[in-house]
Amino acid sequence: MTKVRTRLSLPPTVLKGEVFEVKTLVTHPMDNGFMFSRDGQRIPRHIIHRFEASFNGALVFRADWHEAVSPNPFMSFHASVQESGKFDFRWYDDDGTVHTASAEVEVV
Amino acid sequence: MGEQVRALQDDEFLNPGLFAVEYGEELWSTQTGEMGLSCQSCHGDASESMRSVAAGYPQFDEELGSLVNLEARINEMLTAYMDAPALPHESDELLSLTAFVTYQSRGIPIGVDISGEAERYWQEGQEYYTQRRGQLNLACNQCHDDLAGFNLRGDRISQGHVNGFPVYRLMWNSMGSLHRMFRWCNWAVRAEPYELGSGEYLSLELYLAWRSSGLPIEAPAVRP
User: Fold this and answer.
1) What is the CATH number of the domain that holds A53?
2) Which pLDDT band, with edges at 50, 70 and 90, does B199 fall under?
3) pLDDT of residue B90
4) What's the pLDDT tens digit per position in A43-52?
5) Is the ipTM here above 0.95?
6) For this structure, is B39 an active site residue?
7) Domain ranges of chain B
8) CB-closest option in B13, B20, B173 to A25
9) Range of the structural domain that residue A15 is part of
10) When you count CB atoms within 10 A of the terminal residue's CB, does the N or C end of chain A come out lower?
11) Is A32 near chain B, with CB under 8 Å?
């Protein structure tokens, strides 16, 4: 796909302090810069080099990605929250754009 | 197909083919062409109007006098009824629309019509399937009938069923149509591939769809 798409999976409602899994997926070619196209041209590096997740504005998870990460990177981590709020996810692209997605979690 | 690939395919979250379905859903309701129409303008809600449609393709078209598959039908709709340019083979747009339309038939068994005019194409397809070709001098059936389930280097030989197309292929890192897979197969036995959408491949597609009769559609599938 030419456009970057994201997919999130996390429970809409959780118990206070409950540990739950947050799953994220983003479509991206993750060109590592070592490949050549059919006409012999080097395909320039184009990857997502950083992933961040924050909850209610505070950073809760961060990962630096490198050339060896496969296309369409999948990232999951576990979290627990004390109050209802919003998760913000950011993927930092080599071309300078930041892909974003967000999801609400309600504490019941 | 290995268990891990199977698990990837069955996981609604991880299956990368579903991104194409999402994109196809956007395209479905996007206006295109001189007449300002979208697919939705005539066909409405795809989950109703396109239910089980893909299970009947490819089919013989009386007006065109030839076999058409789903990709060709979409392009015919675009050019004949919407005054829009045809989408190129293997473009994101065509693959995504095909994936979206096929997705509406998930779980419905394949049932193509091979009576009447279509029978001739079915026979052509069968001949293609059993014809040895390429430097390796292999026919499709030698592997996909006789040796299905065995290993070919790191791959497991499939039964050659077509109920998962268009597929997301891990080797390509992208979606691919059935004809792209045919081209790849031809290349793998070191034969000269035919063009995408060629008559030979359409006949083969009909034969294989008939061969897959009764299998539920599971597009977009994942292939190694």
Assistant:
1) 2.60.40.10
2) very high
3) 92
4) 999 999 999 9
5) no
6) no
7) 1-224
8) B13
9) 6-89+96-107
10) C
11) no
Give the other-Cβ count within 10 Å of B189's Cβ: 17
For residue range B156-197, list pLDDT tens digits in order: 899 999 999 999 998 888 899 999 999 999 999 999 999 999
Residue A2 pLDDT: 63
Cα B192-B197-B150 angle, rounded to 5 deg: 60
Please tell me the number of Cα atoms within 13 Å of B81 on its side-chain side.
14
* Chain B residues with CB-CB distance to A27 below 8 A: 16, 19
pTM for the predicted model, two decimal places: 0.88
Q: What integer pLDDT is reported at residue B100 of this predicted model?
A: 94
Q: Look-up: residue for tokens 């069955």?
A: B10
Q: How many CB atoms lie within 10 A of CB B111?
A: 14
All residues of chain B having their beta carbon less than 8 Å from the beta carbon of residue A72 are: 16, 19, 173
**Residue A47 domain-assigned (yes or no):** yes
Instruction: Give domain status of residue A1, yes or no.
Output: no
Please tell me the distance in Å from B24's CA to the nearest CA on chain A: 11
In CATH, what number does B1-224 get?
A: 1.10.760.10
Number of domains chain A contains:
1
Residue B199 phi, psi (nearest 5): -60, -40
Tens-digit pLDDT profile for residues B39-66: 999 999 998 899 989 999 999 998 888 9
Tell me, yes or no, whether A58 lies in a domain.
yes
With respect to residue A16, please indicate whether it lies within any of the assigned structural domains: yes
Label residues B150-168 b or e (16+ Cβ within 10 Å = b): eeeeeeebbebbbbbbbbb
